[in-house]
Amino acid sequence: MFADYYNYWVAIILMMLGFYIVISDANLIKKIIGLTIFQTSVFILFISMGKVEGGTAPILADGITTYSNPLPHVLILTAIVVGVATTALGLAIIARIHREYGTIDENIIHAQDEEEYEDDDEAAS
Amino acid sequence: MDINTIIDISLLTLLAITAVILLRLHNLLAVVLLSGIYSLLTAGLFVSLDAVDVAFTEAAVGAGLTTVLLLGAIAVTGREQSVTRHSRILPIAVTTITAAALIYGTLDMPKFADPNAPIHTHVAPRYIEKSGEEIGIPNIVTSVLASYRGYDTLGEVTVVFTAAIGVMLLLSGSRKSKSQNVKKNVDKNE
Question: Do A70 and B128 touch (CB under 8 A)?
């Protein structure tokens, strides 16, 4: 029972740890790292499903009859590359936010925005 | 328990420990380096799960490129630590409930490494049996990626290209900061 589901359960725990970082940490870079942990947990889940008892890596060779499933590998190979593209884009947005606000703390950014709205209201009235 | 199961379980446990430490740390440099270690452990796990192609991509892209990008980002933004925090009760409640629901869901899944799981009985055997003579290269993952599903890989390249354009546009914008804009407005009003 334990070894049968251990991979899936750890994948779920990692996913929730990443999710927790994304929703609870105010630092934007830490949020991105949480997102990559979330992503990696999905990779682990898929690769775990592709494993076959007694199988080997899916590279054809003489004398080998059991191979692990190659399809999840192909899928995750693509997902890793797309994942790094989204991470790079997220970091570029953070660098832009830092240039604009001088901080990468979510709460301070919100506070600055609200201050600005109040100033606008005062100017209008 | 054979050696494979022991390696598998210990790597997964190390991954969970790394993620917990990462969650508790607030020094950004340490967090970035730990995320690199986390990626390397994942790559090791992929080797033990027979996904060698995925393992070296994860080691090169996940542990290498992503760490470099993150280090570049904290070089620009400074190693500023989070000074404010959200309340913890709601996130803990949300993640616990979601985890419980997902773990309940896994009980319906085929057992780990079960050769008779539905995923192994439909499309995959066709690729394993025929790709050698049809494509002529021994690595099945490469055959599927570059030949059978070549258009998907073309789409992937498009995604990476779009992201690269987005990064360039975001970073090459005007260097005017908000405080300078505010200052200009004040000057105008005077």
Answer: yes
A80-to-A115, B33, B52, B64, B66 alpha-carbon distances in Å: 40, 19, 14, 12, 11
d(CA B180, CA B83): 25
For range A22-37, the mean pLDDT = 92
Smallest Cα–Cα separation from B127: which of A76, A46, A74?
A74
- What interface predicted TM-score (ipTM) does this complex get? 0.90
Task: State which residue of chain A sits closest to B186, comparing Cα positions.
Answer: A123
How do residues B135-181 score in pLDDT, each as one tens digit?
888 999 999 998 898 998 999 999 999 999 999 999 887 655 555 55
DSSP string, B97-133: HHHHHHHHHHTTSPPTT-TTSGGGTSSHHHHHHHHHH
3-state secondary structure of B25: coil
Q: Which residues of A touch B49 (CB under 8 A)?
A: 47-48, 50-51, 68
Query: In this complex, which of A81, A93, A98 lies closest to B76 when CB atoms are compared?
Result: A98
- What length is written for chain B? 190
Which of B66, B69, B119 is nearest residue A69 as measured by Cβ atoms?
Answer: B119
Q: What is the pLDDT of residues B94-143, one digit of tens each?
A: 999 999 999 999 998 899 888 888 889 888 889 988 888 888 889 999 99
CA nearest A44: which of B26, B172, B49? B49
Find chain A residues with C-beta within 8 A of B86's C-beta. Answer: 23-26, 107
